[in-house]
Design goal:
The protein is of the alpha/beta class. The strands form two sheets. Strands 2-1-3-4 form a four-stranded parallel sheet, sandwiched between helices. A four-stranded parallel sheet has the order 6-5-7-8. The protein binds cobalt (II) ion (CO).
Length: 298
């Protein structure tokens, strides 16, 4: 039932009911809250920071904050680096306390899965709050892979990202998404695969670390494309964190995709372990989504 409720909220287009100002004619104060899953891998953090910087640069007058949805990661960062990163609800409470009236929530998640549902829950709760602890308006962007058109956009970005590698007709790009086994949003990976097939059939192979398509599905697909002899492994995630370093490309882990693919006869495998958040076209797409919210308002 929980999932169904979130589906309805999602269908209402992630447009958390704008509580428009019945509050009189005082000044409005706007903030943006970027919400990421987070990463505890220090080198991977720059992918998130890149998105934050892009938003700050695009909206110089607006306060831009960051929250992480992963409590495990938040606690690890606090313990190891002394850096306190709020949850989305803490960040919203702080913004309210500082007198902000309008907040745009900007998730950096790839699919509208479980983590995104959690953000909707928090945003909806705050949107329902009236009086001095509530906001006048909360709006929210959708994740990168939400629907046909956005999958086509990400496919376009991936075509540019691997433009030079794609020139070699024997090269296949293996992309590792996260995946979510119990959520309909997992289907977005197949939607993306379709969009990639339409642009470059037999060149991109999308799999997920925790769900379907699995690495076995990727291998079956590779076998149907015997012209592909060289592989590039890359994360289909905002950060190249733990999953990219270990589950995808770990040399020592016999279960890593790298080693599974080697066992399946692929000898020429290279790694491109750069988070999508570092891609300037992904940052550009995030900014486009934020501007699109304004336009929807007018
Ligand atoms: Co994970």
């Amino acid at each position: 039932m929980q999932k169904l409720i979130s589906a309805f909220i999602l269908a209402a287009l992630i447009f958390i009911p704008s509580i428009s100002s019945a509050k009189g004619n005082h000044e409005t104060k706007s903030a943006m809250l970027i919400v990421s899953f987070g990463t505890s891998v220090p080198e991977a953090r720059k992918a998130i920071d890149n998105l934050v910087d892009a938003v700050k640069k695009e909206f110089p007058g607006v306060d831009v904050r960051l929250a992480f949805t992963s409590n495990i990661i938040r606690r690890k960062i606090l313990k190891e680096h002394g850096e306190s990163i709020p949850t989305p609800s803490q960040a919203l409470a702080n913004l309210n306390d500082e007198g902000f009236t309008h907040v745009t929530i900007i998730p950096t998640h790839m699919i509208p899965g479980e983590e995104f549902d959690e953000i909707i829950n928090v945003a909806s709760a705050f949107a329902d709050m009236r009086g001095k602890f509530g906001f006048e308006k909360i709006s929210m962007c959708s994740p990168f892979l939400t629907g046909v058109k956005s999958c086509e956009t990400v496919a376009e970005i991936l075509m540019k990202r691997f433009e030079s590698q794609l020139k070699d007709k024997e090269t296949g790009i293996i992309l590792m998404g996260h995946g979510t086994p119990e959520h309909f949003a997992n289907a977005q990976y197949l939607q993306l695969q379709l969009a990639l097939n339409q642009k470059a059939y037999g060149r991109f192979f999308v799999g997920t670390v925790e769900s379907s398509p699995s690495i076995d599905d990727v291998i079956s697909d590779l076998k149907r494309n015997p012209q592909i002899k060289k592989l590039i492994l890359s994360p289909l995630m905002i950060v190249a964190g733990d999953h990219a370093q270990n589950d995808l490309a770990g040399e020592d882990d016999p279960e890593s995709w790298l080693n599974i693919l080697r066992k399946n006869g692929y000898k020429d495998i290279s790694k491109y372990l750069v988070g999508l958040g570092e891609d300037k076209n992904m940052a550009h797409e995030l900014l486009r989504k934020i501007h699109a919210l304004d336009e929807a308002d007018e």
